[in-house]
Amino acid sequence: MKKLFIYFIFSIFSTVAIAQIDRSKLPEPGPAPEIRFGDAESFTLKNGLKVFVIQNNKLPRVTYSLILDRDPILEGDKAGMLGFVGEMMTAGTKNRSKDKFNEEIDFLGARISATSTSLTASTLTKHQEKVLELMADVLYSPLFPEDELSKLKTQSKSGLALAKNDPSSISSILSGKLVYGSDHPYGETETETTIENISVEDIKSYYNTFFKPNIAYLAIVGDVSLSEAKKMVEKHFSAWEKADVPSFKYTTPEVPSENVVALVDRSASQQSVINITYPIQNHLPSEDFLASRVIGQVLGGGGSGRLFMNLREDKGFTYGSYAGIGSDRLVASFSADASVRGSATDSAVYEIIYEIRNMRDNGITQAELDAAKSNISGSFGRSLESPSTVANFAINTERYGLPKDFYATYLQRLNALTVEDVNAAAKKFLQPDNMYITVVGNGAQVKEGLMAFGEVKMFTNMGEPERLVAMDADVTASGVIDSYIEAIGGNEKVKSIKTSIIESSAEVQGMKLDFDYYYDEQKQAFSNKVSMGGNVMSNTLLKDGKGIVQANGANQELTDEQFEAAKMNMFIFPELHFESLGYTLEVDGIKDVEGENAYKVVVSNPMGSKTINYYSVESGLKIKSESEETGEVFYTDYKSIDGVMYPMKMIIKSPMIPFPLDAIVNEVVFNTTIEESVFN
């Protein structure tokens, strides 16, 4: 009975309390707290190494973060070298082979990694003495093995091959060159040539020049006291010899005097990658740094950003659009980007510029400011979970001359920002009339629409201005095709080929793929079988006006549009049949294809599907073809087969596969009998 009475009284008071809460309003936020993540204690070794210790006994772990404070370096004809330094330093020492070093690290459950400006380690407290020994071994005695550099070069070249075909990578290269310039560390680009130029001696020279204690900071975070840390640091790092380190100065990039439109033409692209960007001055010590974070968050910081809501939710142009204002001691940049369907390219650019201009002219609202503060505060709080974040805070405070309480009062200063503060910063940072508008996409589809924003300047996939090569006025598409036929053997010889079997293969992640092509022009039949380990994975059949793809035990019939687009594959040399098929041809100037001048010929079928072929101006040979459906195919290593030139290597860059395929032709047989069963 007593329990029932107490429950009854409690219910009454609870009901009254609930009734007094107005749930139509969000609760008022409390004051921003001062962040306490441990005070950094510090000392400096005689060699100039500055050390910060932040004791945190919550977990029995310690993290060591060594940072070099050097100026950015222009690598020139050895661009890419800095990316190899860290891997080379941890590829074995004079005391331990790479395998032995990795074995010791794994046994301790620790981590040691390096870059061109850092050396970090993380371990359980009980193993820190041993890990510091290994860390010092990397610092003092890296071996820099030649075979490791060869592997890194090979990997890097493979990555470059992928980047040349990746619209986002192309966009990044183009934006960097426009914003900073090729003669700036942030704008230079590595190539196969610069990678090949790098030697072990270059890496040793960099290491000997820049890995010096007098430009280094060491942050130690975790379960270790100041006295313990000092004892171990003096033991392992006192022998590190200081020396003068060179400094560098660079011209500060400026915004363009008016908007510049830059286009990389990728005829095979179904989407356009848009990046609108320009250089700015903004860094941690800047008075508007926090306001810049808010501007980026409101404009394009996520799903609630203005760009996202406009381009995705309202217009449906893209899956997402984002923006941000960077931070860098030397020079930073503003960037707004989106990947949109090709037909929406100019509309998307218009909307991005509109949002940038609207925020500069009309500012943000209190609701947007509150939401941005919440997002930024949450991100800041989550970052504190990582020991490396706390280490960077300590180093940044010293490195950039920040107030001692810069990070402790971060949220308080963020919370103190007003709408007026942010709007004033927006007028400073947002420059809608002085931007680089970069697009990577199908030039034939998007170029005309982009002219509304200014003169469209063309660039290569390496961010270089496209070379303009004058084309004789009397050059015609049919003339280019006639030259191609003549180059591969002549009209009579080529027309005499009625059947063909072509066998080729490619290696994919250690597995061999076989491609077998069968052509019978008299029957207008074609088969392409793709096999692995002797098993047919897929078979594409074109016959009797129909197309079928056989895969996984099922048949998929091609639509009329798909069949019409695939029909060109029915013929060994499709150029012989363009006229009879009713295709229209257009020469779209002379283009640079991997350093070779080529006539760009746009081939359109009666249903509107397009294939673009490139024929060498010098040799007449077809060196590349591309389409939205199949991507890009490069033709090389032509060889005479029965008096007809045929490409013995094809590099296939398809949107359906994540990396280029090097297909090597193993055998070509012309005018041979093909069994009827092949086309069934």
TrEMBL record:
Coiled coil: none annotated. It comes from the Bacteria. Residues 197-375 form the Peptidase M16 C-terminal domain. Residues 79-155 form the Peptidase M16 N-terminal domain. InterPro entries: Metalloenz_LuxS/M16 (IPR011249), MPP/UQCRC_Complex (IPR050361), Pept_M16_N (IPR011765), Peptidase_M16_C (IPR007863). Pfam families: Peptidase_M16 (PF00675), Peptidase_M16_C (PF05193). This is Insulinase family protein. It comes from Belliella calami.
